[in-house]
Amino acid sequence: MIIQSLLDTDLYKLTMMQAVLHQHPAAQVKYRFRCRTPGIDLARHVDEIHAEIEALCTLRLDAGELAWLRGLRYFKPDFVDFLGLFHLDRKYVTLRPSADVPGEIVLEVEGPWLHTIPFEVPLLAIVNEVWFRHQPPADEAEGLRRLDAKIARLREVPDCSISDFGTRRRYSRDWHARILPRLRDALGPQFAGTSNVFFAREYDLVPHGTMAHEFLQAFQALGPRLVDSQKAAFEAWAQEYRGDLGVALSDVVGIEAFLRDFDLYFCKLFDGIRHDSGDPFAWGERVIAHLEGLRIDPRTKTLVFSDSLDIDKVLRLHAHFHDRCRVAFGVGTNLTNDLGPRPLNIVMKMVRCNGQPVAKVSDAPGKGMCDDPGYLAYLRQVFGLPAEG
Predict the structure, then answer these.
(1) C or N: which end of the chain has fewer Cβ atoms within 10 Å?
(2) 54 vs 6, 50, 148, 231, 366, CA distance in Å?
(3) What is the pLDDT of residue 319?
(4) Domain identity same for 150 and 271
(5) Taking a C-beta distance cutoff of 8 angstroms, is the pair 205, 198 a contact?
(6) What value does the mean pLDDT take over residues 181-196?
């Protein structure tokens, strides 16, 4: 089995799941998979992916895993009790070769948000690992050499720390398990932790994560008005966590609309803001100017960078911003899938909530996702975004 525990996922899947349990347990959603890397024939591996999904849906959390979750102060007893009964249900997953594009697959998840939200990360990890099983073997010695070179560069800047955000696009589960203790032991406090809940428990690391795009996307259908959907999502998050997990995601409908909504109230309520698309230097300057314009000292807030980072970009961003604000870095594929072969660029995004289309409008071309052009045009109009093209 590729996935051997329901904790082998990103923390933000569980934190969002708790909010859904308490606030929107009846919401219905749909997710759709996309491979952004051209020329990848996943269709020939459908049977193997199917078998891994079947195995995934047999998993339950054991008493030790549940006890560990209870020790994290932001998880409430009723949510952990719910997880003790929870399992993923295969009936919510559609998987088949595409009838329209040779080599592509149709992979969709549709059902109650509460029961489908944990599918995304393990499904992406499964697709990725199945693909690499059938490629020429990677040079693990080269992978370790590259990793050690990154560690050496980071150790030259002792006040720069990173976290692992690489579960969904890792080369394999075993490789992930191999590199995390190496990073922990070599970097010490410079290795701040991991988004992966299972490995956080396994290797005594700090689990990191707050919210993903889907949380704000869902409020496009759940909120009172579309124009207020971001504000409704941030308010719901603050009500759920009461000061914990206070990092807001900024790029669901672009930085301009985000800053309009992220007013003095939210700037004081949240500890930081996460970047996930567009020029990170320009983004950081905009956020700092926004905070200063509200008379908030940026040095009291954390800017979290997590978009396609490598160690060179981490160090450049750190040098540029570290004395002007707090900075944090979530490094994904460049840590967990840098052994030589080209990594896949795969995503799985929410496209519908309660029967209504939802969208992500990225600050970077090609990272948005929506299955309804009419709705996307309306969203752009409501938020004052320029038309596509």
Answers:
(1) C
(2) 13, 6, 37, 38, 32
(3) 98
(4) yes
(5) no
(6) 98
Tokens of 361: 């409008």
Site of tokens 């008005």: 225
Residue 357 and residue 332 share a domain:
no
- The verdict on 203 and 183 lying in the same domain is yes
Radius of gyration of the chain (CA): 20
Distance CA 207, CA 43 (A): 34
Three-state DSSP at 243 gives coil
| Distances 321 to 160, 281, 309, 365 between C-alpha atoms, Å | 11, 9, 15, 25
Q: In the prediction, which pLDDT does 223 show?
A: 83
Contact 133, 162 (CB under 8 A): no
Query: In whole angstroms, what is the distance from residue 129 CA to residue 55 CA?
Result: 15
Question: Is 5 among the domain residues?
Answer: no
**Domains in the chain, number:** 2
The CATH number that applies at residue 47 is 3.20.140.10
What share of the chain has pLDDT > 90, as a percent? 95
Same domain, 245 and 265: yes
Q: Is there a single domain that holds both residue 111 and residue 215? A: no
DSSP letters of 93-141? Answer: EEEEE-SSSTT-EEEEEEEEHHHHGGGHHHHHHHHHHHHHHTSPPP-HH
Nearest to 30 by CA among 362, 366, 364, 370: 370
**pTM of this prediction exceeds 0.90:** yes
Side chain identity at 12, as an amino acid letter? Y
Q: For the segment 260-291, what is each residue's pLDDT rounded down to a tens digit? A: 999 999 999 999 999 999 999 999 999 999 99
* pLDDT for the residue 388: 73
* pLDDT score of 104: 96
Q: Is residue 155 part of a domain?
A: yes
Mean pLDDT to the nearest integer, 40-66 = 98
The DSSP secondary-structure symbol of 72 reads S
Domain hosting 275: range is: 140-336
Q: Nearest 5°: phi and psi at 368?
A: -75, 165
pLDDT per residue as tens digits for the range 346-381: 999 999 999 999 999 876 666 667 889 999 999 999
Which tokens in the block code for residue 306?
Answer: 């997590």
> Is 172 in the same domain as 121?
no
Same domain, 151 and 263: yes
- Whether residue 219 contacts residue 232, with contact meaning beta carbons closer than 8 Å, is answered with yes
